[in-house]
UniProtKB/TrEMBL annotation:
Residues 3-103 form the Carbohydrate kinase PfkB domain. GO terms for cellular component: cytosol. InterPro entries: PfkB_dom (IPR011611), Ribokinase-like (IPR029056). It holds the Pfam family PfkB. This is Carbohydrate kinase. The lineage of its organism: Bacteria, Thermotogati, Thermotogota, Thermotogae, Thermotogales. One of its GO terms (molecular function) is kinase activity. Keywords: Kinase, Transferase.
């Protein structure tokens, strides 16, 4: 699938701490940021992704860029700016600290490159000015995730005529979303509801990003809403069972989707 998509979002280094005893904890360090996770998952699914984001000239950026490049991910549109690369820390799957760093700066978008894309994804990890500017100037369909910050205004739809707004239940209490992610309860697209398994799985960080990527990929393949939503729910659910980092979930998304599709094809 050679579809081109522009993704504008944050880049962070993620540190995950699992356990309760200081000398018995497991510490996982990986690339992260919801924008990066969605971009990487879409890349794994075979789309041509142009990812626009900020990092700084520091050891975190070196770690992040080197790892992405080893996976064959295009980092040419990640801009190096003065400051600190973003840092996210979680403890037993609960976020305890976020240093936004250069994610607070406006993202430099190459509009010549973006003009080749009919689709785009953006979320609230970037500055509000970057979001509003992108919505006003992009010519194709935009998937906008309201997370992770509550910075969107009620009139956000007035900035772009072809917008699919995605968010979790708390985010969608403030603005009218098309797609609502409901955790173990599944997801809803207006009146359409796909139930989840109702279970609390241990590794939920980044599952919303996997959901977004699978939903977008399925829709761009021409699948109907019910099918796309069901696949997004099931793949994100499977990802939460054993993959500890968000990027590991994004890296596994192709295999997870194939397993889900195989299961759906054999269902009565």
């Amino acid at each position: 699938m050679s579809t081109k998509i522009a993704v504008v979002g944050g880049s962070f280094v993620d540190i995950y701490i699992y356990g309760d005893e200081p000398h018995g904890c497991e510490v996982v360090e990986d690339c992260g940021g919801s924008g990066l996770n969605v971009a990487f998952a879409l890349h794994q699914l075979g789309l041509q992704v142009f990812f626009f984001s900020n990092v700084a000239k520091d050891h975190r950026a070196t770690f992040l860029l080197n790892k992405l490049q080893r996976f064959g991910f295009d980092t040419n549109h990640i801009t190096v700016k003065d400051g600190e690369t973003g840092l996210h820390i979680s403890f037993n799957d609960r976020t305890i600290a976020v240093k936004r760093g250069v994610n607070d700066l406006d993202v430099d978008v190459d509009w010549k490159v973006v003009s080749e894309c009919s689709f785009a994804f953006i979320n609230t990890e970037v500055s509000k000015r970057t979001i509003e500017n992108f919505l006003k100037n992009f010519q194709g369909k935009i998937f906008l995730d309201a997370g992770p910050r509550h910075i969107l205004s009620d009139d956000i739809r007035s900035l772009h005529e072809d917008l699919i707004l995605i968010g979790n239940e708390s985010q969608c209490e403030r603005i009218a979303c098309d797609v609502i992610k409901m955790g173990p309860s599944g997801a809803r697209w207006n009146e359409l509801h796909i139930a989840g398994d109702g279970l609390a799985h241990p590794y939920t960080t980044g599952c919303g990003d996997v959901f977004d990527a699978v939903l977008i990929f399925s829709l761009l393949k021409g699948e109907e809403r019910r099918v796309a939503l069901e696949k997004a729910v099931k793949v994100s659910q499977e990802a939460s069972k054993s993959f500890k980092s968000a990027l590991a979930k994004a890296q596994a998304v192709k295999d997870l989707l194939e397993d889900v599709e195989a299961g759906l094809s054999t269902s009565p």
